[in-house]
Amino acid sequence: MAGGESSGHAPYDSVVTTQLEQRAQHRHSHEMAPKRPARSRVFWLVVGLVGLAAIVVARAATSGKSGLALPNQLQDLLTLSVSVIIESLPFVVLGIVLSIVVQVWLPDGLLLRYLPTRPVLRRAAISMFGIFLPVCECGNVPLARGLMLKGFTVSESMTFLLAAPIVNPITIVTTHEAFGFSGGILVARLVGGLLIANVVGWLFSRHPDQNSLLSPGFAEQCRMPDHDHGDSRWQKSIDIFVREAGVIMPALFIGAVAAGAIQVVVPRTVLVALGSNPLWSIVAMMVLAFVIAVCSNVDAFFILPFANTFLPGSIVSFLVFGPIIDIKMLALMRTTFTTRVLVQLTVLVALMSALIGLVVNVFG
Amino acid sequence: MTPISIDDGRRRFRRSLGFVVAILVVLCTTFGLVAVFQGPKLQSAQIDLNGVVEHSGQQLRLFANQTVAHVATSQVTVQPMVPFSVTTTGDVIAVQFDQRLLYSTDYTVTIAGVTSVYEARPATISYRFSTAAPTMYYLHRGQPDDQIVSTGITKAGKSVVYSATHIQSFVVFAKAIAVATIADDGTSELSLVNLSDGAVETLTLPARGQIERMHGASSSSVLGFTFTSAQPSAGTVNLTPQYSSTLFTIDLEAGRKTIPVLGVNGKPVRVVAWLFVPGTSQLIALTRELSALYIDPTRGSIVTPIGQYTDLDHISNDGKVLSVSDQLGSIALTVSDLTEKRLDASPMTGGTPYLGEFQVLTTGDRIEHISLYDSVSGRFSSRLVIDSGASSRALFQTVGDNGSIEGFSVSPNEQYVAIETVPDLAARVPDGYAIEGRSTTVTTVIVDVASGSVVKSMEGFGISW
Asked: Would you tell me which residues 226-265 of chain B have a C-beta closer than 8 angstroms to some C-beta of chain A?
């Protein structure tokens, strides 16, 4: 049911029944999306293979020729963008696979059955899901979408989406490897991530129309009843994989190119120069996190060389803000949430990340 | 409960959102101001609590939470006062102690006016640490077995680290103890006792014979001793022993092979006294020909003659000043330039002092074993004193002047001196050991150099700090 806190008023979940809950309550096994004709699939497969072959041939034909090299800035753009894509791709695929497991392979209501009924405790439990999922932030987008399609409310899925990349086991291990327990960075990151996720989840649970938080396309998808046309689970899984990959991959590519472009335009030295100022270092680190869009599983190692220049609080801000909000994530989350929600989310997460960093700087 | 409309709900959501954002802005502003006005803070510190009492030149590294501006020595205070220097690199302020620190002592380092390179907000950084009280070892000759005992300097507890019959001497290394024992036939055996599991390994000696004057290099795993091979049996053509007070070294972590130390002529040196230069594997030996040699056995036995002397006692803990003597008396020999300073004991009340063995401290004062002649009674008595060069202060004498001072050893940080004494010469009973025999009543007394107070007394000798 849609999450609304009981605070004197009747909870929204008693008066506003979204299409999501209708889906959850009426699992009539309908087909989830219209299938793309087989001929069309083959056509695009051929286009892709021909394009790939053309690139390989062009590369082989021009490898020995000087003067055909790309300008330095364009080379940087390509390198940075491709690195973000390569880094994220395995986790996106893993996220889609986990999403399929949740939607198709887990028994109906299994996850919902064992969660606490009180919304606060329920979101707190959901924010811990990430501990069992070695998926970074980009992989969590399809998984969060899958949770919504499986009956979780928007605010609950949002809680999961925000917390999971920070509390996932790989992130915990890499952050510990990089910083140990020095400066309270690891603890502040974990506690901060959970805090932000639960506060944001609580806030958006107060929204009376959860469906309106979703992008029109995804909201439409959610509204479609889940009728079963007799497809096997494997067929459904393939359908979901194709659909999710079709939505997520373009967003990933656009986000990666944007991240690469901004890094080419804005020199990192500008950000590093602000390093040791207790205030500006936090802003600089959050901007850096937003721009470089590095995966949460490895961001601790990325930022480790900066640890001697930047204050511990700014490192924490980087490690908390980056996995939730960056260029790539905004592009990915735009597949699911409205622009207004993303702006609200960005402001909230930025303020809370900055506050956590400042608290670490003051008391750390 | 009354259901509310969607519009009311949206308004309530917006109010909640605005309220949360406003709260966050206020909190960020507050903490931001606090952070700006706070100045640099101490994030962590590194110090080797054992190292600072064992070696000079150790550092306390203070890590600030941000890059700090240059810190001058005048900004730093250390309590209790010790000489130090300060360097600043990035977010690290390193305080280097010129001398070894005192055992079991609380030190407080305070740095005033620390500023960030970006903000001129001064802050005071303070760090407190307690130095270690290292374990010391001594040899207790008991019945039925002799024991190597470990104990704290000021604590009462003790434990037996190794026991065996007829332990002659020992040297403690980081992971093991080298132990020389006397076999039934009067020859020495050399063993290596693992400190962690007590495993004993027998080391091969150059021949059957006797070990004497065994020392260890404090900074490495090199063991040294003089060796005299056993007398050839009757009927042997050559009756001259193969080795006679020949100096050998063994690197316990590199082959464990006994290697003779070579002299100027490239032949093994035969010595009457020798010692390691503290903190190195180099050694100084006084040959039978009374030639003092500075030898680096690690680099193919590079030998430098440093003078002719009749005796070699001690070397200062910083390795700079050697205590030697010749026919005319005691000399403090500076190793670096071989300048000699002839010494006499400073005047003392109660008699005329005659200087015996001595050790120069890094402060320039000297720990001296003197014989005090009372012209009224016509008696000599033993004293251990600290001599500034102008006056002396007594550190130890036996009760009723009935005993003798057999030797002394200054702790690495020069805070304590261990004095080997026989309390009552009249009751002295030799232990009958074939090699390096001692009195059965030999006792080691630990005296605080600063106050002259006795902090500990043990039945035994051969203290290893």
From this structure: none
